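M18 family aminopeptidase
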Amino acid sequence: MNKQDFNEGLLGFLDASPTPFHATKNMAMMFSNAGFTKLDEAGKWELQKGEKYYLTRNDSSIIAFTYSDSKNYTMVGTHTDSPNLKVKPNPVIKEHGVVKFGVEPYGGLLLNPWFDRDLSLAGRVTYLSSQNIIKDALIDVKKAIAVIPSLAIHLDREVNNTKSINAQTDITPIVTCNENFTKETGGFDFDDFIKEQLLHAGIDDVKELYANELSFYDTQNASFVGLNDDFIASARVDNLLSCYVGMLSICSVDAQTPMLFIASDHEEVGSASTSGAAGSFLENTLRRLFSDYEEYMQLIRTSLFISADNAHAVHPNYPSKHDKEHSPYINRGSVVKINANQRYASNSKTISKFLNVASSLGEPTQNYVTRSDMGCGSTVGPITATRLGIDTLDVGLPTYAMHSIRELCGADDAYSLYKIILGFND
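Predicted structure tokens:
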């Protein structure tokens, strides 16, 4: 696969994955097409050496693995979730001539970029069928149905000097001017709207709606930006970019190669869930691969876990926010992430393994250390290392505007990391 094909596929994946549920579904389809067999966590597994498998949990986290004779696995860990605005259970607000949907910020998102964007809605809906069976379905409205208009500068002359955003009152998306948002007055209510979206998804057997997990997202497609298509701009670059790299990596190896890929949900809110990295999903899966404890521990102590997440590229307009000796540049290679306080799990041994493979392939690498007077984010790396006791490395792809509604990465870096990961199996 060349870089152009790689990046074109990346843009398509980003556009088709507005929520973790959609990202997981798309990766599952990719694995199925690549010859992986789907496993059910609730069923009995009959694994065969030399075969490839995948499984999901909560429809929002996914694991794919080869079942090899070797226990020297290369594991790649990423996350499926991104900061966004989630719809509240009773979302409809009617006031001041409009209907708005109440939302709750998910994760540490930049709120300012959400103003004046064409927003749509997607996620998972749980309902009762006419056979009294509880079922789930994914919906994606796709059409721009909402906007959060900015307050005009005439009404806030100090906005460019001091701007704070109240997450309860300032960011409720407007969806219509029709305040008669009920069946009785000839409009339609929220449940009717959801049922209509289910009908578009081919589901007409809905006896009762129970719950939903819906998120607003920007309808602008991912695209190349720059005089020479230097950049890729998109929503959810953090961390679907790494999901795409890990997914293609394991799809590119044969079934005899010991490799595993996991994309977990809820990293942006601490990973503490059944489908998050702090949960049992990966450990449960590995114990079923090697039920004998001696073999399991051999796997843990001979394997390497590569936590792949985004890294802060030095911002050309704010260089003082970075340690000048550890400031990654976009399109200059993958970033090794290091923190003395174990916010990243890299150590000298795991770093050396990565650098050795990258050097052998002629692929560039960079280091990132946050300023000593600033806080440091974290990843699934330390969480996984702590839970499993597996040697772990934190790497990332340099990015601008992390946690904005539209982020920016380089057109060269992801393909370079893809080649390095494959190099661990040569």
